[in-house]
Amino acid sequence: MARHRERIVYVVAWLIALAGTLRYLGYILGHPSRWLILALLATFFVVLATGPWIFRRPQKYMHIYLAVLTCILVALTMVTTIEDFAAIPFMSLILLAMTHLPTRTGFRWIAIFCVILILCMIAHGLMYHGMNAGMILLTAFLYLVIFLFFGAFMTIFRKLETARTEAEVAREESEELLAELQ
Known about the structure:
With 182 residues, the protein is mainly alpha-helical. It is 87% helix and 0% strand. Helix 6 runs antiparallel to helix 7 and helix 7 packs antiparallel against helix 8.
């Protein structure tokens, strides 16, 4: 059942990343650096596709996997002129981190994603739009809340899965004891 849940989360992570990309597809195709953006997106999705292989390896590979994907998203944010370009794909990384890492480590990754996204948005605002600190911080706060919501949701989902598994084991033990008594 755990493998089934992991596959579902992986598919949802893919769908979120695709949605974040498709949101700006018209923009990407009209951008002067479209080939660089498309190459970075292709790299992101190729690395994302290695997930099932990475998930079966020791945790250090998961950290490398998340770091590489984060670097690609930072590069995408800096190449485009949209400050929150990587925010939605980061949500897919949150799902993967919270599914395949311990809860505390997953929340550390969420903190890393938040800091990186805020820094990217500030740097991006300075490079392309002039500094509108209030709007950037408001948007960053919104994404912080969304990221924490995703993390909390995955934590609750994990706890419910654990409780369900424990209840199933207890039910099987009860049935064995009942069979012994009869």
